[in-house]
Amino acid sequence: MQIIYAAAHAQHDPPFEFLDGALTPYHEAPRRAEIIRAAIERAGVGPLVAPSEHGIEPVLAVHTAEYLAFFERAYERWVEAGGAPAGVLPSTFALRRFARHSPDGLGEPGYYCFDLSGV
Description:
Blueprint: E1 3-4, E2 16-19, E3 22-25, H1 30-43, E4 48-49, H2 57-60, H3 65-80, H4 108-112
Parallel strand pairs: 1-4
Antiparallel strand pairs: 2-3
């Protein structure tokens, strides 16, 4: 079996998330991915292969360009607007039937996010 792996996952490492109403260490942390990678290597189930580039088209087939643009700058805009640098955690969420897109760095995460996992 081929296992697609890239160390780039380590760039996403929020300090915490909310789970069942409690502040907890972020579950999908880089350390977890490294533990899984090491177990795969020990088991010898197949080679680790770097991901190949497919361009943006497959992503745009399932997500809008506006959604992707949000993620490209979400953290930067959040901090610029006064959000805590620990991570993008919206405090309100837009219900789609009432939703009005807010371009504000603090308001926009609530438009695109559906829970309190860090962006």
